[in-house]
Write a structure and sequence with these properties.
By secondary structure, the chain is mainly α. It has a single domain, classed as Up-down Bundle (Growth Hormone, Chain: A). The chain has 19 helices and two strands.
Length: about 450
């Protein structure tokens, strides 16, 4: 545990995830060009991204179960190779139907990667560093967005559709080779409870019913909805077509997603370790920042200043680390034999919220264009203002889900271990009076 070999395995696995993030995000960068290349509407382009996310989300639970049973290494290698194949198909796609098939492949490969990396961590690390590593995986993965946003965007502009996508495919082949050579399964953690009797489906249903799994799902949805919708599809079109920013400025603002993620991840990792009973409060605080800044942008009279838009993307980037808190919640409130399946369930949260938001935004944008007549532009700032109501509404629903699931999880924790967690305002009052901060046995 926590050895030099552990860090080698960690590095190889994270490399596969970084490259996977590049493949996941690349179509969002190429969204405007795809609209023109295949002569399709904004709703059609959003549907392609939504289908990719649906495939990703649907596969999360089976992948989690497989990670528990066959080990993460095989899934990481297979995921990289499948994504490489998907990008090759996309490079030579003659029609939108083939584009959809290509992105289905990318979604499948992507689905195999992140949960497998998260499942690998308890086999190689333990102690206080473990909850921080989940944040570091997410933080380092954002460099995949940087690759997609800056080098891939400029490569796409300089060389065209096919060479850029083939270069992206080659990255996944390299990642697969590195994972095959260096990643090992390691020693699974000891069982913390007996494996339930019954088959795989019975065990999966038991995981779904646990309040900790449900709380992790809603935490992931609230934090992951905005980064998914804006990072995978609508962020770049909003900057370039909605606001009219040039490529360089748009790329700089878009990288604020990564800056928000990278700067927030280590801080949240430390706070989660320091205050494990307040993880949901941390997640809700991050989401509240996103909603406030987004509301200012939507209500701003005229074109919002670039610095405000940058602040929005910075705040949205903070949602990624906020969503990762859901994995730590599920890990600690589930038995060790169910870590993979619980992580898979949690990881569907942000992507369900993301594809609902992406598809809904596409419909709103097309509706605004239709009401403007034949001469109306495909993308407009007013259309994006209205479309932003969709992800905001999804996040608010998720916050309600967090509140309900948290109440059930705290009740279950008290019944099982006698640990009672006081509301945050009570804990703050006790801390001010010099009393224990709200967790009693």
């Amino acid at each position: 545990m926590n050895s030099a070999r552990s860090w080698v395995v960690f590095g190889a696995a994270v490399l596969a995830y970084v490259v996977g993030m590049t493949q996941r995000t690349s179509f969002g960068v190429a969204g405007v060009e795809a609209t023109e290349r295949f002569a399709v509407s904004a709703a059609t382009v959003s549907s392609v991204a939504v289908i990719q996310i649906i495939v990703y989300a649907v596969l999360q639970i089976p992948v989690g179960v497989l990670a528990d049973r066959v080990g993460p290494k095989r899934l990481i290698v297979a995921g990289a190779l499948i994504m490489a194949a998907g990008q090759v198909v996309l490079a030579f796609a003659p029609s939108i139907g083939v584009v959809i098939a290509a992105r289905v492949l990318v979604g499948m490969g992507d689905a195999l990667t992140f949960v497998s990396v998260i499942r690998l961590l308890p086999n190689w690390f333990g102690g206080r560093i473990l909850p921080q590593l989940a944040q570091w995986v997410g933080t380092l993965g954002q460099f995949g967005q940087i690759i997609a946003t800056v080098p891939f965007a400029f490569l796409l502009q300089a060389t065209g559709w096919r060479p850029a996508l083939l270069a992206a495919s080659g990255l996944s082949v390299v990642a697969a080779a590195v994972a095959a050579a260096l990643v090992r399964r390691g020693e699974p953690p000891p069982l913390t409870s007996p494996v339930p009797a019954g088959g795989m489906l019975h065990q999966l249903l038991a995981t779904v019913r646990r309040p900790g799994t449900q709380l992790g799902f809603w935490v992931h949805l609230t934090g992951g909805t905005a980064p998914t919708a804006m990072g995978l599809l609508w962020g770049y079109p909003f900057l370039t077509a909605g606001l009219g920013l040039d490529l360089g400025t748009a790329a700089f603002v878009f990288t604020m997603l990564v800056v928000g993620n990278v700067t927030t991840g280590p801080v949240l990792g430390y706070l989660v370790t320091r205050y494990p009973m307040r993880r949901s409060n941390l997640a809700l605080f991050v989401v509240s920042i996103i909603l406030v800044v987004w509301a200012v942008v939507v209500l701003w009279p005229g074109t919002p200043p670039t610095i405000l838009v940058g602040a929005l993307f910075l705040a949205i980037g903070m949602g990624g680390p906020g969503s990762l808190i859901g994995f730590d919640v599920a890990r600690t409130l589930n038995p060790s034999h169910a870590m993979g399946s619980a992580s898979g369930i949690v990881n569907t949260g942000g992507f369900i919220g993301g594809f609902l938001s992406m598809f809904g935004m596409g419909l709103v944008i097309d509706l605004v264009r239709a009401t403007g007549g034949p001469a109306a532009p495909l993308y407009s700032l007013d259309a994006f203002r209205l479309a932003f109501v969709v992800p905001i509404a999804v996040i608010v629903v998720g916050m309600v889900g967090v509140a309900i699931a948290r109440r059930r999880a705290r009740r279950a924790l008290f019944e099982a271990e006698g640990i009672q967690i006081a509301p945050l305002w009570v804990a703050l009052f006790r801390a001010r009076r010099g009393r224990p901060p709200g967790t009693v046995r």
